[in-house]
UniProtKB/TrEMBL annotation:
It is found in: Cell membrane. The lineage of its organism: Bacteria, Bacillati, Bacillota, Bacilli, Lactobacillales. This is Phosphate transport system permease protein PstA. Signal peptide: none annotated. The chain crosses the membrane at residues 12-34, 66-87, 99-123, 129-148, 258-280.
Length: 294
């Protein structure tokens, strides 16, 4: 068999493998959406959950998920951008930076339940934060920070060295070159990585079981004072997220419509994660077009 025939065989095999993976993913998503979407209504998205009676919703859990996500990203984005810029632009090539990069790789591969137990021991017990949104946001920062840092570093390193030389040749300092030349050029990849990281955090459950808690107390949406105990913005209250709610229903749910609530919540979670991935592509492309047009 000549090289052209082997090339066709290899192409067919790889295409078949890729098609099989796409088919499995489509079947999984289709199964979840077909079972869950009929139960998703406006009342289901806004009503609080019920423990013993049917007809409950996911309103509080959905709000908790977005609030926890925003708080975690507010903490992790500045840290990851600073760490990524230092590693890509300023860190010397020695054993110290090699150890730092190895530590980042190890942290990014840790199981989420291990990170959750770490957060329980450190934030919940040692720092006495209790089961709270703040403890959950901090553990999500630990969980997501290595991935975001690696994303920023890779995005900056993908910029060709001639861009830096051009900035320095124009009389810009190293800091000004990074700020005005390198970062704007890498911004589409950075934004894409941040949005994908947000989607990964939104669907996290294991790390939050031990930190944010498994209860969703009633919220007073008429009082947004963060110091008020029932305020939606109170960072010290426990907050069961949507992913934790799904796990809890399937493990110990006793409401009559537990199957329907679990299916509907799973469909909402899948749609949210798909939207994060779609937004990452759309926003990344738009930012790239604006940067190249400018």
């Amino acid at each position: 068999m000549n090289a052209k025939k082997w090339d066709k065989v290899a192409t067919a095999v790889l295409t078949g493998i890729a098609g099989l993976i796409v088919l499995l993913l489509a079947c999984l998503l289709g199964y979840i959406l077909v079972r869950g979407l009929p139960h998703v209504t406006w009342q289901f998205l806004t009503k609080p959950a019920q423990t013993f009676t049917k007809g409950g919703g996911i309103g509080v859990q959905l709000f908790n998920s977005f609030y926890l996500l925003i708080l975690a990203m507010v903490i992790s984005i500045p840290l990851s951008i600073g760490a990524g810029i230092y590693l890509a632009e300023y860190a010397p090539k020695n054993w110290v930076t090699n150890v730092v990069r190895t530590a980042i790789e190890v942290l990014s591969s840790l199981p989420s339940v291990v990170v959750g137990l770490f957060g329980f021991l450190v934030f919940v017990i040692q720092f006495k934060l209790g089961f709270s949104i703040l403890a959950g946001a901090l553990v999500l920062t630990v969980f997501n920070l290595p991935l975001l840092t690696r994303n920023v570093e890779d995005a900056l390193k993908s910029i060709h060295f001639t861009q830096r030389e051009a900035g320095l040749a124009l009389g810009l300092s190293r800091y000004e070159t990074v700020k005005h030349v390198v970062i704007p050029e890498a911004l589409p990849n950075i934004i894409t990585g941040m949005i994908l990281g947000a989607g990964r955090v939104f669907g996290e459950a294991a790390a939050l079981i031990y930190t944010a808690g498994q209860s969703a107390p009633s919220l007073d949406f008429t009082n947004w004072n963060p110091m008020y105990i029932a305020s939606p913005l109170n960072p010290m209250r426990p907050a069961e997220t949507l992913a934790v709610h799904i796990w809890k229903i399937n493990s110990e749910g006793i409401m009559p419509d537990a199957t329907a609530v679990s299916a509907g919540a799973s469909a909402v979670l899948i749609i949210a994660v798909l939207l994060f991935n779609w937004l990452a592509r759309v926003i990344g492309k738009r930012v790239y077009r604006k940067m190249t047009a400018a």
